[in-house]
């Protein structure tokens, strides 16, 4: 059994990234468990917290350290990724010397109503994630534009996106298992 933990960078009602995450969960290959690592309750990290690391942050780190691979599904906010995603990643690396990201297979996906489907957000994630000692899967990529037409109200994706999601999550699980 391969366990993939996922972080979704939006918990807005009707979030299209939550819908994309649900599509990826539904399309995950056999013998794969998809675990929502749930960043909603995480406070804002500050280095003064290292001395008495908050339990809610430690619990999140423990959940993340128990998975075989990490998937980040995130919107684009102001040409970048939301601060909540960076906060979550920072927490996974702190306190110093206790990062759970060393050697962790990581990949990213996202969707937006616009044409470019989170490309700017993803290109910025690509800049720093590999520097954290993760094993980064950069290809295939999953940046889904036109989210308003892709996802039905009930969250189901159209056939083309469902197939893209299936291939993407299969490639990531293969990448994780190959490590
Ligand atoms: C603060 C903010 C900034 C945004 N900036 C961008 C942007 O730079 N590029 C883009 O494609 N969409 C942008 N959007 C629109 C989001 O793509 C859209 O709200 C999308 O539905 C967010 O994903 P979600 O539904 O999963 O929350 C922005 C939305 C918000 C709330």
Automatic annotation (TrEMBL):
Its EC number is 1.-.-.-. Keywords: Oxidoreductase. Residues 3-147 form the NADPH-dependent FMN reductase-like domain. It is an enzyme of class 1 (oxidoreductase). One of its GO terms (molecular function) is oxidoreductase activity. InterPro entries: Flavoprotein-like_sf (IPR029039), FMN_Rdtase-like_dom (IPR005025), NAD(P)H-dep_reductase (IPR050712). SUPFAM superfamilies: Flavoproteins. This is NADPH-dependent FMN reductase. It comes from Nesterenkonia aerolata. The lineage of its organism: Bacteria, Bacillati, Actinomycetota, Actinomycetes, Micrococcales.
